[in-house]
Amino acid sequence: MTRTGFFCSASTIAALASFAVAGPAAAQAVQAAGQQSGTTVGEVVVTGSFIRGTPEDAALPVDVIGADELEKQGSPSTLELIKNLPASNGVIGDTNQFDGRAQGAEGAATVNLRGLGASRTLILFNGRRVVIAPIGQGAPDVNLLPSAAIGRIEVLKDGAAATYGSDAIGGVVNFITRRNFDGLEINGSYRMIDGSDGDDWTAQAVWGKDFGAFNVMLTGGYQHRSELSVRERDFTQVSYFDSPETGYSTGNAVTAFLPLMNTATGGFTPAAGLQRDAGCAPLGGTPTFSGTTPACAFNYTPYDNLVEEENRFQLYGEINWDIAEDHRLHIEGLYSETDTPQWATSPSYLALQSPTSTTSPAVASGLAAGYFVPSTNPGFALYRQQNPTQIPSFATGAYLPGVLYRPLSFGGNPLFGDNSSRGSRKYEAFRLSASLAGEFGNGIGYDVAATYMTDNLVRIGYDALVSRLQLALRGLGGEGCSPTTGTPGVGPCRWFNPFSNAIQSNVLTGQTNPNYSAAVANDPELIRWFFQPTGSDLTTKLFVVDAVLNGELGWELGGGAVGWALGAQYRKDQFEGKYDALTDLTVTPCIDTPVNGSTNCTVRNGPFLFLGGATPSDLKGDVWAGFGEVSLPFTDSIQMQLAARYEDHGSGVGSTFNPKASVRWQFSDLLAARGSVGTTFRAPPLTSLDPGQVTSLQFLGGAFRAVDIIGNPDLEPEEATTYNIGLIASSGGFTATIDYWNFDFDNPLVTEPVGGMFSTMFPTGAGTGNCGNPAFAALQSRFVFGAGGVCSVANLSRIRTFVVNGPKVKTNGIDVLANYRMDDVWGGSAAFGVTATYTNEYSVGATTVEGVVVSPAFEGVNHLNYQTQIVPVPDWKGTAFAEYTMGPHNIRVQVNHIASYIDQRTSPFPPNVVQNATGATQLRSNEGRKIDAFTTVDAAWRYQAPWDTTFVFDIDNLLDEDPPFARLDLGYDPFTANPLGRTFKLSVTKRF
Question: Cβ–Cβ contacts within 10 Å for residue 202, how many?
């Protein structure tokens, strides 16, 4: 046996391939898997079982997607493929930096079968586990797999813990390399995307040589994905009054400020009410009010991208050596790299952390949730001269409320080339696997393998240091300036001007500021001094040893011999997190550590304005497993398979036992029934058990807040009972399947819902809500406030959440597929088909935090599910195609459909209002409450030219449909839709 999995005949696969995603006919997916450059194979591996020799796989809902089928579709990228899978929802892969479920994952892509979460889909490569990516979702990054080497993809849409162990709850996706490739193949593609900075292109090569008992294959591939700015798509450009949620913040560098004056005791008190900076409208901001507070709305998403630049490089090699009769050695190696060199975000972040009394003289006066600007600041003096009615002559300074302030906005960030703040993400993966498989003389087969894989992510961003920014506002900023002995604005000590007269123009729109003065403009070198990198170096490692025996028992049933398999597995998982000095909480735990070296502070969130720090970690976990299967061919038409697996995750987590039974009944030549029932589980990831924290950023109460996600060493494994019942019909060129599936979870591993916590504490999204209410005291302790800890939305800086075993979850639905193939149609052949998934139920039980129900039980189907435990779940998702082949030509048209769904939030919609510059209210519109259906049409033409050359011309989104509008930061739902619009792609393959 050459791979861990199930062997069956090519004829069996022909029936199985009727499940192929958007596949035109049963045999084609298999033909693609076996006929790589003229090579054929007599039997292939099907994901879902370790037993060989019987067609038991047909009891399981497996999709087989071959390379030939993908080529006819225009060779979609891995991300495009998984986003189009009808059984997959909530895919991570497109830029989605504003959702905590996807933050920090730029450049990676995950599979999310049934929308259960990417961590509940097990990814295999040639039947072996793939290491999870160090991105927080606890799921492998499928972008790292070598696309040039892939011969087919198998998708098992059923719980499979009895076979594969932890993580195989929603199903299994197995990427399988080409078999027995002989020759050289070179492929390249170019894709035109309107507005893209350079378009997309790929180049890859495959070389293989068959030496008889020994064969080798080497592949190399490079994929470039170009940057696509938010500004290039109209659906992202929505007025503040139409949708404040679409990328607007009232916290920016042209903000409201409070004039101050000295008190008799030397402190400060307000000299006037809050004043909106007069530069708001001239610089392109939207003057508005937040309650009674004058504000300026800043549109931050035009500085961001819909698609980040990605450069991906993959090298893969494998050898197969028949070292003796019936004994084969397989060795494979992979190196993969994904570089996102210029990740774009806002010019700077909101000031969620504020200075202490070490650097701010206003803190002692109770002004502890903002920044102090003395009247000696040159920008203050000029602004008062320009706007004498706003700042009284007796004012001695100003106070900038933290949640309303970010140091850089309309004028951009001068430290980077295009005025966005820039960061980077770089993944490097290495994998080595070796197996020895074959058959002993007594007919017992064996497969012994060892696999090692590591995935490293180096992630860099930028943020302002709280204490340095405050010193710069006081004229004590800059390299070489002593905050204790320096003179403000003299020598190396420089001023930072927070007022609009430092900004010449809006760098994106060109709108000029009439009150700009070069004399008070800010020095980029001063900005560089307080705007510092924050870096993390995260590594996951996986080492697995597998051993499987299989064969036949000495007795037979009516349908043939009883088959069996027994196996054992050892896994070691590791996670290592290292951080630069400013991000490492063991080195720089306090706001003031960068200026005084002190590590003694009550709040230990690090020194940055917005981003929290992290604690280094070096985590390890060992798993021991034993498993077994038996196939029972009771008759030629009724076959059953039983499987069970025991896994021990050590004293911290415990052990689990998971059985599964599946059956197939061919009760006529036309019709067969299949079904399965079993239990499945997922162990807590190492990072979830670690009591350290990571920080995400969530939009709550009109502003972004820091959300600390803290691990929980008391977590238990989550468990689910699953079953599947289906029918298979086949007659001539017609094949069809229908399956009902059901998942019922206990103790699911989730992060407490921050949206529910916030709305429970502050029901109106503003004011003081339930502050001080004894019934909410424990919940209130999860919220961190500035200004002396005064509880209010305006004073909220961060929220603490934990990973927990959450409420019950139940989901079920139906998969349908139908294909029809006709030969001798106008001298060629035609095929038609449809594949769809209908999700009937996705119910989540009530969630309690600190004794308070923060999220009542809800139904997730047909909803956006923003800031909940689950991803968006449209009820219908599917594809339909028509295809015609004549000689070397193949034409295919495919329709992709995602049904509409509802944004169930209440705050963005009527009867709520938004306020204009005078404070007058305007009723919000209902636009975006219903996120419309998204239907696109793709067309591809393949020409198999002479000289072993193939051309494929593909037009995706032929009708140039925009994604449906959603009241999210980017104006659409990146988990579900595609922002590219109509694209044109040409691919050329040459075989030698």
Answer: 21
Residue with tokens 């951009």: 412
Q: What is the pLDDT of residues 736-768, one digit of tens each?
A: 999 999 999 998 998 888 889 999 999 888 788
Residues of 614-649 as b/e, b for ≥16 C-beta within 10 angstroms? Answer: bbbbebebebebebbbbbbbeeeebbbbbbbbbbeb
Phi and psi angles of residue 284, each rounded to the nearest 5 degrees, phi first: 95, 10
Distance in angstroms (rounded) separating the CA atoms of residues 98 and 765: 19
User: In the beta sheet, which residues pair with residue 384?
Assistant: none
Dihedral (Cα; 12, 15, 16, 20), 10-degree rounding: 140
Neighbour-count burial of 340, counting CB atoms closer than 10 A to its CB (0-12 exposed, 13-18 middle, 19+ buried) = buried
Report the C-alpha gap between 594 and 279 in whole angstroms.
33
What are 797-809's pLDDT values in tens digits?
Answer: 789 899 999 999 9
Q: Give the Cα separation of 92 and 106 in Å (integer).
A: 9
Alpha helices in 142-185 (DSSP H): 161-164
Query: Hey, what amino acid is at 170?
Result: G
Alpha helices in 316-417 (DSSP H): 378-386
Helix extents (H) in 665-816: 686-689, 754-761, 777-780
Q: Is the pLDDT of residue 543 over 80?
A: yes
**3 state DSSP class of 37:** coil
Cα distances (angstroms) measured from residue 565 to each of 339, 456, 923: 42, 35, 66
Asked whether the beta carbons of 219 and 204 are under 8 A apart, the reply is yes
Q: How far is CA 535 from CA 19, 327, 541, 597, in A?
A: 45, 48, 20, 20
Q: What b/e sequence results for 157-169 when a residue is b if at least 16 CB atoms lie within 10 Å of its CB, and e otherwise?
A: bbbbbbbbbbbbb
Q: Residues with Cβ < 8 Å from 787, sequence gap 6 or more?
A: 366, 367, 368, 369, 370, 795
Phi-psi region of 165 (alpha: psi -120 to 50; beta: other; left: phi over 0): left
Closest CA to 573 of 52, 939, 165: 165
How many Cβ atoms sit within 10 Å of the Cβ of residue 665? 17
- Cα 507 from Cα 79, distance rounded (Å): 33
466 touches 591 (CB < 8 A): yes
Write down the number of H helices and E strands in the chain. 12, 51
Which string of b and e fits 522-560 if b means at least 16 CB within 10 Å? bbeebbebbbbebbbbbbbbbbbebebbbbbeeeebebb
Quickly count: other Cβ atoms within 10 Å of residue 490's Cβ.
11
Q: Which two tokens stand for residue 645?
A: 């697996």
Sequence letter at residue 54: T
Long-range contacts (CB closer than 8 Å, 24 or more residues apart) made by 551-557: 551/442, 551/443, 551/444, 551/445, 552/53, 552/443, 557/632, 557/633, 557/634, 557/635
Measured CA distances, 417 to 247, 528, 671 (Å): 22, 14, 64
Please give the Cα distance from 172 to 168 (Å, whole number): 6
What is the β-pairing status of strands 783-785 and 796-805? Answer: antiparallel
Under DSSP, the state recorded for 133 is P
Distances (CA, A) of 39 to 31, 250, 321, 802: 10, 62, 17, 53
Question: What's the CA angle centered on 167, arms 161 and 168, to 5 degrees?
Answer: 45
Decide if 92 contacts 110 (C-beta within 8 A): yes
**CA 27 remoteness from chain centre:** 34
Flag the least confident range among 95-104, 365-374, 448-457: 95-104
Bridge partners of 785?
A: 796
Quote the pTM value: 0.90
Which burial class, exposed, middle or buried, applies to 726 when counting CB atoms under 10 A from its CB (0-12, 13-18, 19+)? buried
DSSP-derived letter for residue 863 is B
Confidence bin at 46 (pLDDT 50/70/90): low
H or E segment to which residue 295 belongs: strand 293-299
Residues 175-185: pLDDT tens digits?
Answer: 999 988 999 99
